[in-house]
UniProtKB/TrEMBL annotation:
<feature type="transmembrane region" description="Helical">
    <location>
        <begin position="225"/>
        <end position="246"/>
    </location>
</feature>
<keyword id="KW-0472">Membrane</keyword>
<feature type="transmembrane region" description="Helical">
    <location>
        <begin position="304"/>
        <end position="322"/>
    </location>
</feature>
<protein>
    <submittedName>
        <fullName>DUF373 family protein</fullName>
    </submittedName>
</protein>
<feature type="transmembrane region" description="Helical">
    <location>
        <begin position="161"/>
        <end position="179"/>
    </location>
</feature>
<feature type="transmembrane region" description="Helical">
    <location>
        <begin position="342"/>
        <end position="363"/>
    </location>
</feature>
<feature type="transmembrane region" description="Helical">
    <location>
        <begin position="266"/>
        <end position="284"/>
    </location>
</feature>
<feature type="transmembrane region" description="Helical">
    <location>
        <begin position="185"/>
        <end position="204"/>
    </location>
</feature>
<keyword id="KW-0812">Transmembrane</keyword>
<dbReference type="InterPro" id="IPR007254">
    <property type="entry name" value="DUF373"/>
</dbReference>
<keyword id="KW-1133">Transmembrane helix</keyword>
<dbReference type="Pfam" id="PF04123">
    <property type="entry name" value="DUF373"/>
</dbReference>
Amino acid sequence: MLLVLPVDLDDDLGRKTGRSTPVIGRDDVEAAAVALATADPEDSDVNVLFQAVHTYDELVADETIEEEVAVAAVTGVEGSDVQANRAVGEEVDTVLAALSTGEDVRAIVITDGAQDESVLPVIRSRVPLDGVRRVVVRQAQDLESMYYTMKQVLSDPETRGTVLVPLGVLLLVYPFSVVAGMLDIPGAMVLGLVSAMLGLYTLFRGLGLERAVDSAAERTRNVLYAGRVTIITYVVALALLVVGGVQGVDTLGAVEDATGPLPVEAQLAVFVHAAVQWAAAAGVTSSMGQVTDEYLSDRFRWRYLNAPFYVVSIAIVLYGLSGYFVPLDAGDVLTRLTLGELALALTIGTLLGVLSTLTFAVAESYTERNPRPA
């Protein structure tokens, strides 16, 4: 059996004529077309219904077609495309049940444009398609398809951001220039700012950084909502690093004022010697925050406590090395360490790291052999 199936996705037929759908049978479909044409002569679905009747008559009159031919009009609902597609699928099921034929049913779908054709996968899942006929006014064959395509493109958030944002920035060039002229700001500065905005946006989109930014924002929200201690300790550690950097620069300036310009290796030694304790405090703070979060999450391991001791060990070694290479004539700003003091610092740093590793390894081994009762 061949089923001629005109589709009205937004249910103009039901809303404007009050007729219940689906409409099955040639006479009923023709009457529905007349009723819709009377209610709204400009509705394109009128052409769809009349074309369905015309196609039905052609197939019936074609002597080469021996199988039975039927026609039925189905509609969706106004508004959501998902609900409309679902409604069309349900009405197609109703039509197939009403035909109650033992023959295999194949459909010829009649639509008025690309929007109605979005329901084709739903129909194809229920009945094989022999063809699709689009009926539009000849003077505007591509108008509805163009409108629907533009509507779909602009409804996509990613495409909307890619197309409309640069266009919006370009359209703001003239008003920015007018405002700049009123404020006596050079026009070249406005064009430079607009060009910089477009360039940064293009790089941002081209490199796919929006996903990284969204991911970072999501992780930050999760950290805040979970009440993790690390968010505080990281901020404190950052502040300590800034203080250490400022302290190192100030100390280097004071030493150069006392001794004159220093070679690069001496500058590095002075900077590290003055700032390393602040960096060590930052490392200990951040590592303790991480250890606290692991404990609160029941993922604590004794070996995690090695982190702050390692930080202190490294800081002692760097303090000793940098202090040994501080210029002799640094004056009252810094005192150069002796070879014995350097050896002591290296020994303390090494012993601290080794002892902490052994201590917490033993503690972890003991805990694994003697777990706490549940």
